[in-house]
Amino acid sequence: MKTNAIVGVVAAVFGVMVGSQLPRGVVSAPISITTFRIKVPFNQWAEGFDSKEADQMHKANDLRPLFRGVHINDPTKVVVIHQSKPGSVERLLTENRKMIEAGGHIMRTTQTTNWLYE
Question: Which residue, 12, 38, 74, 87, is most buried by CB atoms nearer than 10 A?
Answer without folding.
Answer: 38
